[in-house]
Amino acid sequence: MTHLSMGRPWESCSNCKQWFSGKWRVDIAAEFKRSTEGMVNGLRVFRHVTAVAWMTKSLLSMQGSFELLIEDEFSKLFSLIEDAKAVYVHTVSNAVVDYLQASLGQLLVEAHSNYAMFISSKLTLAYQCFRGSDSEYDRMKSLYHKCRKHSKLASTVHDTLFSTMLTMDSFMNRQLEVTKVQLNAQEAGLENQFAAFFAEGKPGDDSEKKKQESREKELELLRQKYEHHRDMKIGGANVFSHGSEYLQRLIGISRHCQLDNTENTDHYLALDLALKMLRESRQVLGSIHPLHKSAKFNFGMLVTKYRRGQICGDPMKRMSPITRYEGDIDMYVLKMEDEGLIDKFGAEIAKDPEDVTLHNGALVKCVGLNKAEHLNEKRGWIAGYDDKKERHLVKFEDKSLKQALVKPANIRVLFFDDEEPDWYEKEMARAATTATEALDADEEETTRTNCLT
After folding, report:
1. Scanning 114, 173, 287, 366, which has its CA 20 to 30 A from the CA of 200?
2. What DSSP designation does 373 have?
């Protein structure tokens, strides 16, 4: 949840309207928090609670550098909210006090939800580094139950708040309805990622079926949340934030930007949403806004994730990215990543489409078909390959068309006008830089902690 009932203080520059980000955002949040410290003992305590809540969210955007500080700030926030509730309980009730009490409830829901997401990110990192030891497993299981605890606390506080506000502001009630969808999506996402891993005993034969059902439930809840925010029109940034989350899960990117092996159930649903988010975020938020950069990442990942090919005759069946299509000579250009292929072919090689076996999930169109002319120029995606018939199984964007086995020579991978030619190289370089900066920040934080202790 990112919408605060009293707005987002000092979130963006008053002149250029661009969002503050990174360390600059954290410094401004800290100054905002400092400026409200004198309000902790009176009716204006809500202002300080808002400042601390904003501080936690600013730190979460850089959590690799501030993990210990985040824990401390969340502890302060939970304590502050309880103290503030006591202040307003002993105050004569009026419309303003009632509204502030309701807003405190919203902040408490938000705090539990954000803390659960913070713990979930730690759990994801531990899962990626898991080496099988009992101590690692026990720590991960502790994090999992802690995450579930705060996620359920958020839902409990929300339900209590909703039951007391049915006669109050209708817009706030609508917000609470959307928040409930968001909390359900958060719980479904947690279950989807980790429930099978931490299940007692061995997973049953239906574990994959349950995982798929859990993923479908999460996707449906994320879709509802995104559409609710579009309908409510409570802010462009909110809409793009929730749309990005839905799109990432749709194309198989986890909440913490890790690529999983989930295949899309509807590639062109994801493509249409990705293009819409890319174009609208550029128009509404600007080209340097973090959410537009996220939209660029999502779109680039979607169109390049499966746009890979295997050179026919390669005994090791190694897949390489297809970086472009040269229409004048009807050739794919493949970028060699494997050292053996680089030694054999060089950094790049041009290949006739009939000599390339495409990766499952690649977005394609049919061309040059004689017996099935109605399929020419129809868009679809690769759903398999028949080794005996040497044909790809293609499923089509148009659901009225039946899937078909098509020769590689009659298929062309899709490229889009919105793509940046060197997106893949830029993204790999950016990811490497980000990883290096995160390691340096962790070392700096560890050194600073050791000095303090």
Report:
1. 114
2. G
Q: What is the pTM of this model?
A: 0.65
Tell me the per-residue pLDDT of 227-241, one tens digit each, with 9 for 90 and over.
877 776 655 677 888
Query: What is the arithmetic mean of pLDDT over 9-18?
Result: 61
Contacts for 257-266: CB closer than 8 Å, 24+ residues apart: 258/124, 258/128, 259/301, 259/305, 262/215, 263/360, 263/361, 264/361, 264/381, 265/216
Q: What does R_g of the chain's alpha carbons equal in angstroms?
A: 25
pLDDT of residue 423: 60
Rounded-to-integer distance, Cα 178 and Cα 190, Å: 19
**Residue that wins the pLDDT comparison between 347 and 393:** 393
State how far the Cα of 331 lies from the Cα of 350, in Å rounded to an integer: 6
Cβ neighbours of residue 135 closer than 8 Å, sequence gap 6 or more:
none
Alpha-carbon gap, residue 280 to 285, rounded angstroms: 8
Angle of helix 67-89 relative to helix 95-128, nearest 10 degrees, comes to 160
Neighbouring C-beta atoms of residue 141, cutoff 10 Å: 14
Question: Among 3-12, 192-201, 342-351, whose mean pLDDT is lowest?
Answer: 3-12
The one-letter code for the residue type at 32 is: F
